[in-house]
Amino acid sequence: MVYSLWTAAGGMSGQQLNIDSIANNLSNVNTIGYKKSRTDFQDLFYQTYKTAGTRSDLNSTYPVGIQVGGGSKPSSTQVLFAQGNLQKTGVKSDLCINGEGFFRVKMQDGSIAYTRDGSFKIDSEGYLVNSNGYYLDPPIQFDDDFIKESIKIMQNGDVYYKSSSMEKDDEFYLAGRILLTRFVNPAGLSRVGKNLYKQTSGSGNSFDGIASTLGYGSIQQGFLEMSNVQIVEELVSMIVAQRAYEFNSKAIQTTDSMLMTAVNIKR
């Protein structure tokens, strides 16, 4: 059996997935809170023609065997949760997490999703919502006569604001506290689009906690966490993947030429 055909074809398929992942990273270079993916590979089965340590004759053994691999396949697309750069915006409702943790939001179907995208807005009812209109969980709501420029969000997630009906200029209301969530294995979260993640059995248990305490990052007001994609790194990875794809294609062409030579021997 000519293994090189299957091996090279599998290599091309794997590198195509690798290119797809790199292209997705590049397309999200400006996505707030985006975390890059890395395609990991593992080798496949091996055909053993000679086992190391078996006898070569009566008084000696083979020090090295003969094994031919069956190629490789993608084993996972690992999400890398390295901290992205913090960009100052000055917008009172823009938040970022400096460290571990996710914001919790409640989707329209009542399920909970998690995000690192802190570009929150204030809707018509005074709720702090994400770009898709999903409420924070627990919700944060301001009074109708709140003063937007007075909003203060502390590093531990406490949200304060002033109201135009207040009698004292130095008086603040507490709107609530923004909690953070962390996971045993955040790489096991499932991406669902809209900068959101869903919990899976692979991500393990979730733990809600207060920002700036042990194990949780701090919340920074007026900043956004940008994508952690590095363009130069992605371009280098793309060139390597492209070359690997081309060389696997060349291996198929070479094998095909060898087979044609073998077929033509009889002629």
Describe the structure.
- It is a single chain.
- This protein is an alpha+beta fold.
- The chain folds into two domains: 3-44 and 71-81 and 229-264, no CATH class; 86-225, no CATH class.
- The chain has two helices and 20 strands.
- The protein has helices at 3-27, 231-264; strands spanning 37-43, 46-50, 66-69, 72-79, 86-88, 95-98, 102-106, 112-115, 121-122, 128-129, 135-136, 146-153, 158-163, 173-177, 179-183, 190-193, 196-198, 206-210, 218-221, 223-225.
- Strands 7, 8, 11, 15 and 18 form a five-stranded antiparallel beta sheet that branches.
- A hairpin with a 2-residue loop joins β16 and β17.
- α1 (3-27) packs antiparallel against α2.
- The radius of gyration is 27 Å and the shape is elongated.
- The mean pLDDT is 93.
- Residues 220-265 form the Flagellar basal-body/hook protein C-terminal domain.
- Residues 7-35 form the Flagellar basal body rod protein N-terminal domain.
- Keywords: Bacterial flagellum, Cell projection, Cilium, Flagellum.
- It holds the Pfam family Flg_bbr_C.
- Residues 97-161 form the Flagellar hook protein FlgE/F/G-like D1 domain.
What can be said about this structure in brief?
The chain is α+β, with helices and mostly antiparallel strands.
Question: Keywords, please?
Answer:
267 residues; alpha+beta; 2 domains; 5-stranded antiparallel sheet; 3-stranded antiparallel sheet; 2 helices; 20 strands; 22% helix; elongated; cilium; FlgE/F/G-like; Flagellar basal-body rod protein FlgG; flagellum; Flagellar_basal_body_rod_CS
